[in-house]
Amino acid sequence: MENSWAREQIATIYHSPLLSLIQQSAEVHRQNQKSGEVQVCTLLSIKTGSCVEDCGYCSQSSRYKTGLESQKLMEITAVLEAASTAKASGSTRFCMGAAWRNIKDKNDFEHVLEMVRGVSVMGLEVCSTLGMLTDDQAAKLKEAGLTAYNHNIDTSREHYPNVVTTRTYDDRLETLERGGNAKISICSGGILGLGESHEDRISMLHTLASLTVTPESIPANAIVPVKGTPREESPRVSVWEMVRMIATARIVFPSAKVRLSAGRSEMSEVEQALCFMAGANSIFSGDKLLTTPNGSVTANHALFDLLGITSMKPVN
Ligand code: SAM
Ligand code: DTB
Ligand code: SF4
Fold first, then answer.
1. What pLDDT was estimated at residue 253?
2. 252: domain CATH number?
Protein backbone atom coordinates (compact mmCIF):
# COMPACT_ATOMS: atom_id res chain seq x y z
CA MET A 1 0.00 0.00 0.00
CA GLU A 2 2.60 2.50 1.14
CA ASN A 3 4.81 2.00 -1.87
CA SER A 4 2.13 2.53 -4.47
CA TRP A 5 2.47 6.30 -4.70
CA ALA A 6 2.69 8.02 -8.06
CA ARG A 7 5.13 10.91 -8.21
CA GLU A 8 2.30 13.31 -9.10
CA GLN A 9 0.35 12.36 -5.98
CA ILE A 10 3.36 13.13 -3.81
CA ALA A 11 3.87 16.41 -5.67
CA THR A 12 0.26 17.43 -5.02
CA ILE A 13 0.61 16.74 -1.31
CA TYR A 14 3.97 18.54 -1.13
CA HIS A 15 2.59 21.65 -2.84
CA SER A 16 -0.58 21.89 -0.70
CA PRO A 17 -1.10 25.09 1.29
CA LEU A 18 1.09 24.69 4.36
CA LEU A 19 -1.59 24.86 7.07
CA SER A 20 -3.82 22.37 5.35
CA LEU A 21 -0.80 20.12 4.76
CA ILE A 22 0.01 20.18 8.48
CA GLN A 23 -3.62 19.44 9.36
CA GLN A 24 -3.71 16.54 6.93
CA SER A 25 -0.43 15.08 8.16
CA ALA A 26 -1.49 15.43 11.81
CA GLU A 27 -4.67 13.52 10.95
CA VAL A 28 -2.73 10.74 9.18
CA HIS A 29 -0.39 10.60 12.16
CA ARG A 30 -3.27 10.32 14.64
CA GLN A 31 -4.94 7.57 12.62
CA ASN A 32 -1.82 5.44 12.21
CA GLN A 33 0.34 6.00 15.26
CA LYS A 34 0.13 7.11 18.84
CA SER A 35 0.52 10.84 18.48
CA GLY A 36 2.35 12.34 21.43
CA GLU A 37 4.82 9.46 21.38
CA VAL A 38 8.33 10.10 20.08
CA GLN A 39 11.16 7.65 19.67
CA VAL A 40 14.37 8.78 21.33
CA CYS A 41 17.57 7.53 19.73
CA THR A 42 21.23 8.01 20.56
CA LEU A 43 23.94 8.15 17.92
CA LEU A 44 27.53 7.10 18.40
CA SER A 45 30.34 7.46 15.91
CA ILE A 46 32.19 4.16 16.40
CA LYS A 47 34.77 4.93 13.68
CA THR A 48 35.39 8.54 12.85
CA GLY A 49 36.88 10.37 9.87
CA SER A 50 39.39 9.45 7.14
CA CYS A 51 36.57 8.35 4.85
CA VAL A 52 37.46 7.83 1.18
CA GLU A 53 34.08 9.07 -0.09
CA ASP A 54 33.54 12.66 -1.20
CA CYS A 55 30.04 13.41 0.16
CA GLY A 56 30.07 17.20 -0.12
CA TYR A 57 28.46 17.87 3.25
CA CYS A 58 30.54 15.54 5.38
CA SER A 59 33.05 16.42 8.09
CA GLN A 60 34.49 12.91 7.85
CA SER A 61 35.60 12.81 4.23
CA SER A 62 39.39 12.76 3.89
CA ARG A 63 39.04 15.01 0.82
CA TYR A 64 38.24 18.07 2.91
CA LYS A 65 40.28 19.88 5.57
CA THR A 66 37.67 19.99 8.31
CA GLY A 67 40.07 19.73 11.26
CA LEU A 68 38.27 16.61 12.47
CA GLU A 69 40.36 14.18 14.48
CA SER A 70 40.08 10.66 13.06
CA GLN A 71 39.50 7.69 15.35
CA LYS A 72 39.86 4.03 14.55
CA LEU A 73 37.10 1.59 15.45
CA MET A 74 36.19 1.96 19.14
CA GLU A 75 36.66 -0.79 21.69
CA ILE A 76 33.60 -2.98 22.21
CA THR A 77 33.42 -2.25 25.94
CA ALA A 78 33.43 1.53 25.37
CA VAL A 79 30.58 1.21 22.86
CA LEU A 80 28.53 -0.93 25.24
CA GLU A 81 29.11 1.58 28.03
CA ALA A 82 27.84 4.36 25.77
CA ALA A 83 24.77 2.28 24.93
CA SER A 84 24.09 1.66 28.59
CA THR A 85 24.37 5.42 29.33
CA ALA A 86 22.04 6.11 26.42
CA LYS A 87 19.49 3.67 27.81
CA ALA A 88 19.74 5.20 31.29
CA SER A 89 19.09 8.64 29.79
CA GLY A 90 15.86 7.40 28.16
CA SER A 91 16.91 6.37 24.64
CA THR A 92 15.27 3.26 23.23
CA ARG A 93 17.31 3.02 20.06
CA PHE A 94 21.09 3.10 19.69
CA CYS A 95 22.62 3.87 16.32
CA MET A 96 26.28 3.21 15.53
CA GLY A 97 27.87 5.05 12.63
CA ALA A 98 31.17 4.28 10.93
CA ALA A 99 32.91 6.44 8.33
CA TRP A 100 33.43 3.60 5.89
CA ARG A 101 32.71 3.37 2.18
CA ASN A 102 31.74 -0.22 2.81
CA ILE A 103 32.14 -2.80 5.52
CA LYS A 104 35.34 -4.84 5.26
CA ASP A 105 35.17 -8.42 6.44
CA LYS A 106 37.46 -9.80 9.14
CA ASN A 107 38.33 -8.12 12.45
CA ASP A 108 36.48 -4.83 12.25
CA PHE A 109 33.28 -6.46 11.09
CA GLU A 110 33.52 -9.15 13.78
CA HIS A 111 33.88 -6.36 16.36
CA VAL A 112 30.82 -4.57 14.99
CA LEU A 113 28.81 -7.80 15.17
CA GLU A 114 29.86 -8.13 18.80
CA MET A 115 28.72 -4.54 19.45
CA VAL A 116 25.36 -5.25 17.81
CA ARG A 117 24.89 -8.38 19.93
CA GLY A 118 25.81 -6.49 23.11
CA VAL A 119 23.45 -3.59 22.46
CA SER A 120 20.64 -5.90 21.39
CA VAL A 121 20.69 -7.88 24.67
CA MET A 122 20.29 -4.58 26.57
CA GLY A 123 16.77 -4.40 25.15
CA LEU A 124 17.54 -1.44 22.92
CA GLU A 125 16.71 -1.26 19.23
CA VAL A 126 20.01 -1.42 17.37
CA CYS A 127 20.69 0.52 14.20
CA SER A 128 23.94 0.90 12.31
CA THR A 129 25.22 2.89 9.38
CA LEU A 130 28.42 1.41 8.05
CA GLY A 131 28.40 2.21 4.33
CA MET A 132 27.71 -0.32 1.60
CA LEU A 133 26.71 -3.88 2.51
CA THR A 134 27.02 -7.31 0.91
CA ASP A 135 24.22 -9.88 1.24
CA ASP A 136 26.37 -11.98 3.54
CA GLN A 137 27.15 -9.04 5.84
CA ALA A 138 23.48 -8.11 5.95
CA ALA A 139 22.57 -11.66 6.99
CA LYS A 140 25.23 -11.63 9.73
CA LEU A 141 24.08 -8.26 11.06
CA LYS A 142 20.51 -9.54 11.18
CA GLU A 143 21.60 -12.67 13.01
CA ALA A 144 23.51 -10.55 15.54
CA GLY A 145 20.29 -8.71 16.37
CA LEU A 146 20.41 -5.58 14.22
CA THR A 147 17.00 -3.88 14.08
CA ALA A 148 17.62 -1.35 11.33
CA TYR A 149 20.20 -0.28 8.78
CA ASN A 150 20.60 3.42 8.00
CA HIS A 151 21.75 4.37 4.55
CA ASN A 152 20.46 7.68 3.22
CA ILE A 153 19.74 8.40 -0.40
CA ASP A 154 20.35 12.05 0.57
CA THR A 155 18.56 13.69 -2.39
CA SER A 156 17.05 12.97 -5.82
CA ARG A 157 18.77 10.83 -8.44
CA GLU A 158 19.15 13.96 -10.60
CA HIS A 159 20.77 16.14 -7.93
CA TYR A 160 22.86 13.38 -6.35
CA PRO A 161 25.93 13.79 -8.64
CA ASN A 162 26.19 17.41 -7.45
CA VAL A 163 26.65 16.12 -3.92
CA VAL A 164 28.56 12.82 -4.15
CA THR A 165 30.67 11.46 -7.01
CA THR A 166 32.47 8.48 -5.49
CA ARG A 167 29.49 6.15 -5.39
CA THR A 168 26.32 6.07 -7.39
CA TYR A 169 22.68 6.42 -6.52
CA ASP A 170 22.20 2.83 -7.64
CA ASP A 171 24.94 1.70 -5.24
CA ARG A 172 22.90 3.20 -2.44
CA LEU A 173 19.66 1.62 -3.61
CA GLU A 174 21.39 -1.74 -3.86
CA THR A 175 22.55 -1.57 -0.25
CA LEU A 176 19.01 -0.74 0.85
CA GLU A 177 17.74 -3.69 -1.15
CA ARG A 178 20.28 -5.98 0.52
CA GLY A 179 19.30 -4.83 4.01
CA GLY A 180 15.64 -5.32 3.18
CA ASN A 181 16.23 -8.80 1.74
CA ALA A 182 17.93 -9.79 5.00
CA LYS A 183 14.75 -8.66 6.83
CA ILE A 184 16.51 -5.74 8.49
CA SER A 185 14.32 -2.62 8.80
CA ILE A 186 15.33 0.12 6.44
CA CYS A 187 16.15 3.61 7.67
CA SER A 188 16.68 5.98 4.77
CA GLY A 189 16.09 9.64 4.15
CA GLY A 190 17.97 12.70 3.12
CA ILE A 191 19.22 16.20 3.70
CA LEU A 192 17.51 19.52 3.00
CA GLY A 193 19.72 22.43 2.06
CA LEU A 194 22.00 20.82 -0.54
CA GLY A 195 20.88 23.31 -3.19
CA GLU A 196 18.08 20.96 -4.31
CA SER A 197 14.79 22.11 -5.82
CA HIS A 198 11.28 21.26 -4.63
CA GLU A 199 11.15 18.78 -7.52
CA ASP A 200 14.28 17.06 -6.14
CA ARG A 201 12.66 16.72 -2.73
CA ILE A 202 9.52 15.23 -4.25
CA SER A 203 11.62 12.82 -6.34
CA MET A 204 13.54 11.75 -3.27
CA LEU A 205 10.32 10.87 -1.44
CA HIS A 206 9.07 9.07 -4.53
CA THR A 207 12.28 7.00 -4.72
CA LEU A 208 11.90 6.08 -1.03
CA ALA A 209 8.26 5.17 -1.61
CA SER A 210 9.24 2.96 -4.55
CA LEU A 211 11.80 0.83 -2.68
CA THR A 212 10.99 -2.87 -2.54
CA VAL A 213 11.01 -2.67 1.23
CA THR A 214 9.25 0.44 2.59
CA PRO A 215 11.49 2.33 5.03
CA GLU A 216 10.60 1.89 8.69
CA SER A 217 12.26 5.19 9.47
CA ILE A 218 13.00 8.30 7.47
CA PRO A 219 15.58 10.77 8.74
CA ALA A 220 14.94 14.38 7.77
CA ASN A 221 18.27 16.17 8.12
CA ALA A 222 18.85 19.88 7.62
CA ILE A 223 22.32 20.61 6.34
CA VAL A 224 24.82 21.34 9.10
CA PRO A 225 27.41 23.46 7.31
CA VAL A 226 30.84 22.09 8.18
CA LYS A 227 33.86 24.33 7.65
CA GLY A 228 36.20 22.97 4.98
CA THR A 229 33.50 21.07 3.06
CA PRO A 230 31.97 22.25 -0.24
CA ARG A 231 28.77 22.97 1.73
CA GLU A 232 30.40 25.18 4.36
CA GLU A 233 28.49 28.26 3.17
CA SER A 234 25.07 26.60 3.01
CA PRO A 235 22.37 28.86 4.44
CA ARG A 236 20.19 27.56 7.26
CA VAL A 237 17.13 25.63 6.08
CA SER A 238 13.91 27.42 7.02
CA VAL A 239 11.66 25.62 9.47
CA TRP A 240 8.80 25.93 6.95
CA GLU A 241 10.79 23.84 4.49
CA MET A 242 11.44 21.21 7.14
CA VAL A 243 7.78 21.19 8.16
CA ARG A 244 6.63 20.79 4.56
CA MET A 245 9.01 17.89 4.01
CA ILE A 246 8.15 16.18 7.30
CA ALA A 247 4.39 16.54 6.73
CA THR A 248 4.65 15.11 3.20
CA ALA A 249 6.80 12.23 4.45
CA ARG A 250 4.25 11.52 7.20
CA ILE A 251 1.39 11.29 4.69
CA VAL A 252 3.34 9.16 2.22
CA PHE A 253 4.67 6.85 4.97
CA PRO A 254 1.87 6.65 7.57
CA SER A 255 3.51 3.92 9.67
CA ALA A 256 7.13 5.04 9.48
CA LYS A 257 9.09 6.96 12.04
CA VAL A 258 9.94 10.35 10.60
CA ARG A 259 13.11 11.41 12.39
CA LEU A 260 13.92 15.05 12.97
CA SER A 261 17.68 14.60 12.73
CA ALA A 262 20.59 16.94 11.92
CA GLY A 263 19.83 20.63 12.36
CA ARG A 264 17.44 20.16 15.29
CA SER A 265 19.76 21.86 17.77
CA GLU A 266 19.48 25.04 15.71
CA MET A 267 15.71 25.03 16.10
CA SER A 268 13.73 26.77 18.83
CA GLU A 269 11.29 24.79 20.96
CA VAL A 270 8.43 26.32 18.98
CA GLU A 271 9.99 25.19 15.69
CA GLN A 272 10.52 21.67 17.02
CA ALA A 273 6.92 21.58 18.27
CA LEU A 274 5.75 22.45 14.76
CA CYS A 275 7.78 19.57 13.35
CA PHE A 276 6.18 17.18 15.87
CA MET A 277 2.73 18.48 14.94
CA ALA A 278 3.55 17.86 11.29
CA GLY A 279 4.33 14.23 12.07
CA ALA A 280 7.94 13.95 13.19
CA ASN A 281 8.06 11.21 15.82
CA SER A 282 11.69 10.41 16.37
CA ILE A 283 14.75 12.39 17.40
CA PHE A 284 18.40 11.96 18.28
CA SER A 285 19.14 12.83 21.87
CA GLY A 286 22.57 13.45 23.36
CA ASP A 287 25.24 16.16 23.11
CA LYS A 288 26.57 14.99 19.78
CA LEU A 289 25.25 13.57 16.53
CA LEU A 290 28.20 11.86 14.84
CA THR A 291 30.69 14.74 14.83
CA THR A 292 28.58 17.88 15.30
CA PRO A 293 26.79 19.20 18.40
CA ASN A 294 23.20 18.27 19.26
CA GLY A 295 20.83 19.49 22.00
CA SER A 296 21.45 18.19 25.53
CA VAL A 297 19.51 15.30 27.08
CA THR A 298 18.23 17.72 29.75
CA ALA A 299 16.87 20.09 27.11
CA ASN A 300 15.07 17.16 25.46
CA HIS A 301 13.48 16.07 28.72
CA ALA A 302 12.32 19.63 29.35
CA LEU A 303 10.83 19.88 25.84
CA PHE A 304 9.03 16.52 26.20
CA ASP A 305 7.61 17.62 29.57
CA LEU A 306 6.49 20.93 28.13
CA LEU A 307 4.74 19.33 25.16
CA GLY A 308 3.46 16.26 27.03
CA ILE A 309 5.42 13.92 24.77
CA THR A 310 6.20 10.40 25.94
CA SER A 311 9.05 8.20 24.79
CA MET A 312 8.23 5.26 22.50
CA LYS A 313 8.98 1.73 23.75
CA PRO A 314 11.44 -0.43 21.79
CA VAL A 315 9.91 -2.96 19.34
CA ASN A 316 12.27 -5.82 20.20
N1 SAM B 1 29.41 6.46 6.16
C2 SAM B 1 28.09 6.05 6.29
C3 SAM B 1 27.25 6.42 5.09
O4 SAM B 1 27.50 7.42 4.44
O5 SAM B 1 26.31 5.66 4.80
C6 SAM B 1 27.40 6.51 7.55
C7 SAM B 1 27.59 7.85 8.15
S8 SAM B 1 26.88 9.24 7.33
C9 SAM B 1 27.68 10.52 8.21
C10 SAM B 1 25.17 9.28 7.71
C11 SAM B 1 24.31 10.35 7.08
O12 SAM B 1 24.37 11.55 7.84
C13 SAM B 1 24.64 10.82 5.67
O14 SAM B 1 24.15 9.96 4.71
C15 SAM B 1 23.94 12.16 5.61
O16 SAM B 1 22.62 12.02 5.11
C17 SAM B 1 23.92 12.62 7.06
N18 SAM B 1 24.86 13.75 7.24
C19 SAM B 1 26.20 13.67 7.28
N20 SAM B 1 26.76 14.88 7.42
C21 SAM B 1 25.74 15.78 7.48
C22 SAM B 1 25.68 17.19 7.60
N23 SAM B 1 26.77 17.94 7.66
N24 SAM B 1 24.47 17.78 7.62
C25 SAM B 1 23.33 17.02 7.54
N26 SAM B 1 23.33 15.67 7.41
C27 SAM B 1 24.52 15.05 7.38
C1 DTB C 1 21.00 10.46 9.62
O2 DTB C 1 20.23 10.57 8.66
N3 DTB C 1 21.42 11.48 10.36
C4 DTB C 1 22.37 11.02 11.36
C5 DTB C 1 22.27 9.47 11.21
N6 DTB C 1 21.48 9.32 10.04
C7 DTB C 1 23.48 8.65 11.16
C8 DTB C 1 23.70 11.60 11.15
C9 DTB C 1 23.70 13.11 11.12
C10 DTB C 1 25.11 13.57 11.00
C11 DTB C 1 25.23 15.04 11.09
C12 DTB C 1 26.61 15.51 10.95
C13 DTB C 1 27.59 15.00 11.95
O14 DTB C 1 27.31 15.01 13.17
O15 DTB C 1 28.69 14.62 11.53
FE1 SF4 D 1 32.02 8.86 4.35
FE2 SF4 D 1 29.46 8.55 5.14
FE3 SF4 D 1 30.70 10.94 5.35
FE4 SF4 D 1 30.07 10.00 2.94
S5 SF4 D 1 28.62 10.54 4.60
S6 SF4 D 1 32.04 10.94 3.52
S7 SF4 D 1 30.40 7.83 3.23
S8 SF4 D 1 31.23 9.08 6.43
1. 96
2. 3.20.20.70
The answer to whether 39 and 312 are in contact (CB under 8 A) is yes
Task: With respect to residue 118, please indicate whether it lies within any of the assigned structural domains.
Answer: yes
Active site residues: 51, 55, 58, 95, 127, 187, 259
Q: Is 32 helix (H, G, I), strand (E, B) or coil?
A: helix
Question: CB atoms < 10 A from the CB of 70, how many?
Answer: 12
Is residue 172, in this structure, part of any structural domain at all? yes
DSSP, collapsed to helix, strand or coil, labels residue 175 as helix
What is the CA(284)–ligand 2 centre distance, in A? 9
Would 264 be classed as within a structural domain? Answer: yes
Helix (H) or strand (E) holding 172: helix 169-181
Could you report the per-residue pLDDT of 140-149, keeping only the tens digit for each?
Answer: 999 999 999 9
What letter does residue 234 receive in the DSSP assignment? P
> What's the number of domains the chain is made of?
1
Q: How many A from CA of 290 to the centre of ligand 2?
A: 6
pTM of the predicted model as reported, rounded to 2 decimal places = 0.93
